[in-house]
Amino acid sequence: MDKFTKLTSSAIPLEIENIDTDQIIPARFLKATDKKGFGENVFRDWRFDKNGNVNTEFPLNDKKFSGTILVAGDNFGCGSSREHAAWAVHGYGIKVVVSSFFADIFKGNALNNGVLPVQVSPSFLKSIFEEIKKNPDTKIEVDLEGQTITVLSSQQSESFEINSYKKTCLINGYDDIDFLVSMKEEVEAFEKARVE
Amino acid sequence: MKKTLFDKVWDAHVVKEMKDKQQILYIDKHLIHEVTSPQAFNELEQRGIPIFRPKQIVATADHNTPTQDQHLPVKDEMSRNQLNQLNENCSKNNITLYDLGHKYNGIAHVMSPELGITQPGMTMVCGDSHTSTHGAFGTIAFGIGTSQVAQVFASQSLLLQKPKSLRITVNGKLKPGVLPKDVILYIIAKLGTNSGTGYFCEYAGTVFEDMSMEGRMTVCNMSIEMGARGGMIAPDETTFNYIKGREFAPKGDEFDKKVAYWKTLPTDEGAAFDQEYHFDAEDIEPMITFGTNPGMGIKINESIPTEDNASFEKSLAYMDFQKGQSLIDQRVNYVFIGSCTNGRIEDFRAAAKFIEGKVKADHVTAWFVPGSQQVAKQIEEEGLKDIFEQAGFQLRQPGCSACLAMNDDKIPEGEYCVSTSNRNFEGRQGQGARTILASPLVAAATAINGKIIDITKQFD
Questions:
Q1: pLDDT for B137-184, tens place per residue?
Q2: Which residues from A are below 8 Å from B317, CB to CB?
Q3: Number of Cβ pairs closer than 8 Å across A and B?
């Protein structure tokens, strides 16, 4: 898993609420048996029409926006458990998703793939969108160790929550598998001891 | 300390408490399918980690399967490859697989309960968000991502933080024509699509006590549509009677012992929840959705609300509906009855009861897709298949089908589909498709009339 400590980047604004995992990666792209190539199809049906023509108005296709931070409306990632959504976001090159609310499963999937979900207050989210509107090159700094997100142009800053275990994992690029395998004896002991 | 149903089951599965509120939770049953498992198998293989408890895993092919000609090789190459990989992975690792055509094949969340695999007090996971379905049995069941599928493969456990608790109580008697699907669509319309995020939800009250297991499964299934990782209903005599005698249910003394334990699971009187909501059964009517998330629902004879919000307007534009519009008489060309939400025998009985003696509207294409081989068999045995065929409907073979349209069962662009599935997201049933979620009764009525009718008038 990619390590994450600190990032400064311009951001792509996606001012839409309740962006579900079917928008992030439509089901017809879930037929692959590896994790590669999902980035090409992230937000496929918003980025392209059904004949494959580029929708230039969509922020990901709009040349004035760039960067590795995605700023999205409330309740990002609702819907299915498909980790393909996190692979698609990651595969496209996004390292941080900022929203005022994340759906549970997407949040976990993102963290398991080195993508940091940063939950901010609705008012802070609004101010980020406004800053980007004013200047699409607006740089945002996300500091995982300090747990802060700062809009550099306006110096507006907010702290964000993250579970300290998950934080350690992200900083070091660890995932849960090795940890859980190292707990095998405890799991076996639990199995033996268990009386229903 | 007084405990909730959720507390009792959760606490009984904690292997170890870690710092930072993380707990290692033991998983009793792991259901897998072709779409979200291949990358997890690969992950373990690359790391040289064996599958820890293959006997606690049950696999089925459901998401990406055709619903016609299942005896023939699957036409789509990528789908075929995915199904082959599931087959190879399962045989390599000694995992039971109910593959296409197997008498137990079906949608994971239909197949597992009907075989008695799902039992009260268990922890269950699957790489599918509708795993919440199994909560109908008083089971902690929730959807996981593929990284977590790999974690459960490797350790039969997960590292988690205990969710908060939520209880939704609905008391009273449901009106005629109001089905379990309407109850959950009503709740989600009232509370919104993220009201349950961070919570595990218990459904309580006379409405759920009076409900069949099939109905309870429909309700728990859609818990995730309000953001809750899972939903649960206390096990009772209805639960025990449903499980008794099923293929993998405990038998004889073992069953009695289990029942004695299951009876200890319901929430203690006075146990505290982090959040509670109450509704009256009498306020619930047959429901339909008008937008692009399951929270955008109205009573069938209500008008679309007027809300000034860009996301709301985007949603209506996609659906080509107007604020204040009624959906009664809306012409509909497609109807889908099926999915892990409403693909069980009771759903087809409800549809058949309405359809019997009537004829399908000419312009309607209707897909009736049983949730499993067992449901398909029962539909035939109970004579429902004849009722459907006489009305001009064709029964398909089991699978997830048009719920997520991974196979060929896609709704064409711009078309409306009244669907008994669980999500009305943009493009969910095919690129540009417009989904209207409803109960099997409303779906059947739409298929007969070729338009949405006010079903409440049939019961006055």
A1: 999 999 999 999 999 999 999 999 999 999 999 999 999 999 999 999
A2: none
A3: 187
Q: Which residues pair with B199 in a beta bridge?
A: B164
CB B206 within 8 A of CB B173: yes
CA B31 to mean position of chain CA atoms = 14
Measured between CB atoms, which of B47, B155, B413 is closest to A187? Answer: B155
CA atoms of A45 and A43, how far apart (whole Å): 6
* Cβ B212 vs Cβ B345: under 8 Å: no
- Crossing angle for the helix pair B213-221 and B180-191, to the nearest 10 degrees: 30
What is the C-alpha R_g of chain A?
A: 18
Instruction: Return d(Cα B383, Cα B360) in angstroms, integer.
Output: 18
pTM, full prediction: 0.97
The domains found in chain B, sorted by start residue, are: 5-275 (3.30.499.10), 289-459 (3.30.499.10)
Burial class of B459 by CB neighbour count within 10 A (0 to 12, 13 to 18, 19+): exposed
Q: Which residues have CB under 8 Å from A89's CB, separation 6+?
A: A24, A39, A42, A70, A97, A110, A115
> Which residues, 6+ apart, have CB-to-CB distance to A112 below 8 Å?
A1, A83, A86, A175, A176, B145, B147, B148
Query: Is B339 within 8 Å of B371 (Cβ atoms)?
Result: yes
CA distance B145 to A86: 9
pLDDT for B377-403, tens place per residue? 999 999 999 999 999 998 999 999 999
Distances (CA, A) of B427 to B188, B412, B423, B433: 21, 10, 10, 5
CB of B236 within 8 Å of any CB in chain A? no
What mean pLDDT do residues B192-217 have? 97
Cβ neighbours of A74 in B, within 8 Å? 194
What tokens were used for A49?
Answer: 């029409």
Q: Does A180 touch chain B (CB under 8 A)?
A: yes
* B35 vs A: CB within 8 A: yes
SS3 B254: helix
Cβ of A73 under 8 Å from any chain B Cβ?
Answer: yes
Contact of B311 with A73, CB cutoff 8 Å? yes
A-interface mutation test, from B30, B49, B129, most A Cβ less than 10 A away? B129
Residue count of chain A, please give it: 196
What is d(CA A161, CA B190) in angstroms, rounded to the nearest whole number? 29
